[in-house]
Structure formats: structure tokens, C-alpha cells
Amino acid sequence: MGNKEQMEAYWRANLRYVGILLGIWFLVSFVFGILLAEPLNTIRIGGFKLGFWFAHQGSIYVFVILIFVYVWLMNRLDRKYGVRED
Known about the structure:
The protein is mainly alpha-helical. It has helices at residues 3-35, 37-40, 50-81; strands spanning 44-45, 48-49. Strand 1 (44-45) and strand 2 (48-49) form a beta hairpin.
């Protein structure tokens, strides 16, 4: 595989990761926190309504977790394509 083809494959994989992670974030923050808040509020975890928790804290926790997942995925992808920075 040529260098240009490798870089295009690297970029496609990067965009796929970003798309998947943004989809998860959208699902948690918008769908669970806003669209499905009322039905989720019938469920209580630790005394808090689940829809309320997703809207106020869950989406933030998930976003931070997604940052760490993205870093892990990109480090793995960098090693695979030999474009590590260190």
C-alpha cells in the first residue's frame, strides 16, 4: 500500500471513530437527556430520576469517557499506521 493510500485509510478510520463517538455523545446528551427525559424519569437510580441525571451529569461523564476512548483509539491507530509523534 502506498503512502497516500495509507494516509487515506488512516484518515477514514479517524473519521469513523469521530462519527461513532459523536453519535454516542448525541444519543446520551440529546436523546436521553432531552427527547427521552420524561420516560426515563420514571426510573430512579440512587434517588435521582434517570432523565434528569442524563441531562445534568450523565452526558458530561460520558463526554469525558469518550475523550479517553478517543485518545486510546487514536494511539492505537497511530501505532498501526506508524505515525506516532514520540
